[in-house]
Amino acid sequence: MVLSDHKPSTFQSPLTVQQWVYAYWVSRCIYVVAKLGIADLLKDGSQHCDALAAATNTHSDSLYRVLRALAALGIFAETQPRCFELTPLADCLQSNVPDSIHNQAIMRGEEHYYKSWGNLMHSVQTGESAFEDLYGMDLFEYNKQNPVAAEIFHQGVASIAKEVHIPQLSAYDFSSISKLVDVGGGTGSFLAAILEANPTMTGVLFDLPEVIDETKNSRETASVDDRCQLIGGSFFETIPEGGDAYLLKHVIHNWDDEQAIAILKCCYQAMKEQGRLLLIECIISPGNEFSWTKFGDVNMLAMCPGGKERTEAQYKDLFESSGFKLRKIYPTEWDFSIIEGVKIVNNGVVA
User: Fold this and answer.
1) Do 206 and 183 form a contact (C-beta atoms < 8 A)?
2) Which residues is 179 bridged to in the sheet?
């Protein structure tokens, strides 16, 4: 279908376009209340703005104006003059509730993140990372040098990852895998969930040495310690051998094609001839169909040198360039899909 055959999206009405122009106002207000922990302070009921301001060391009238604006959108509610309570839309801003976006709201609103989006024009004009232009390094190096920023980033990413564990587990049958290697698996929460659901499986969590050290402290793999090996290293150099399947969750989108192929080739060298490659990534939908992945792709443009979300055809090309055949794509209830590849050996596919 050609692009002109697609019906215009409802996002294109003039009123809605105007609303999107001002959308960052809302985002900044949400960041402020998330950073201050306002939703947590309201978990037991309505409170006066003076009490909230005292608890957060803020200016009462200014805090009131922010909360009043959010309440107009259904995020909090003013129950009596200058008194606010949680609403269903505000519940997710609490820090320790199911489906919390508290950490995500903070991560996206931090100065270095927000400024990078403010520098998006640089990326459009040059094709280079807006973040790198501002800070002289990529996001990963920045996090290494700024422990507070790194902790905020890891908490934000972890909260996103945990939200999609169940849909991803239910979208793919992992039961036939004897040994699963999770490449760039962070602190191992997803690998632990897979191992818990498949009691005969063993796993290897592979990430940078400092991440593996953090995992040993966080104990997210404690429930499967007897079946899970923790190994530190670089996926550009060598990857643990002998896995039946190699999983890369939200890894490949951080890199340009050349680097992505280098990572996948390392997986190819490490895996058995019958091995499977499993990528969990967002896939850009065709034409004018709306998807947040298309904005996620712009985020990668701004934040990561060479990073991008990709179409199905682009993933097929990556697989073929690194020795795999894309066999099947398993959609999940979220925007993420599980992309399955098989290793090509001697010009034939070994399934």
Assistant:
1) yes
2) 202
pLDDT digits (tens, 9 = 90+) for 159-181: 776 666 666 778 899 999 999 99
User: Which residues are 22's β-sheet partners?
Assistant: none
What pLDDT is attached to residue 351?
Answer: 52
What's phi and psi for 139, nearest 5 deg?
A: -60, -35
Note the residue count of the chain. Answer: 351
Classified as helix, coil or strand, 295 is helix
Q: H helices within the chain, ranges in order?
A: 14-21, 23-36, 38-41, 49-56, 60-71, 88-91, 102-109, 111-118, 120-126, 130-135, 139-145, 147-163, 165-171, 189-197, 209-218, 257-270, 292-303, 312-321
Cα distance between residue 262 and residue 155, in whole Å = 28
Give DSSP secondary structure letters for 94-150. Answer: SSSSTT--HHHHHHHHSHHHHHHHHTHHHHHHHSS-HHHHHHSS-HHHHHHH-HHHH
Active-site residue (options: 122, 154, 250, 253): 253
Judged against a pLDDT cut of 90, whether residue 41 lies above it is answered with: yes
253 is catalytic: yes
